[in-house]
Design brief:
Helix content is 40%, strand content 8%. By secondary structure, the protein is mainly alpha-helical. The protein is globular.
Length: 120
Amino acid sequence: DNDIDDRVRQIVINAIDSCRKGFCGGFVSSYELEHLLRDSKMDRIMPRNRRQEMLRTLGYIQHPALRKGRVSSNIPGTLDRPQIYIKQNHPTVHYKNNSEIVAAYVKAQQGVPAGLVEGG
């Protein structure tokens, strides 16, 4: 149903615009997306197998250097190994190293632009 898809998209856009944890700096974490949808009672309406396509409509792709977009190590301070989505022309799109990508993601969640990440 398009109305429901639009409502879910708007919730995600609001999270991106407000720089909610997991949605800052051109990144989206699948783990934080799950929490957002659950908190909004939308997790059953937008099942996991439809989320990648929904994010694509917003201009986000799985990070190309990560196997199926998933980081191979935990995000520091968490037990999470989420899929990381980035804006299509994101400054980290050419990063090849998992630890560089994770570092850029973590810094972005703290408000540091990806272009300012060391080693980028």
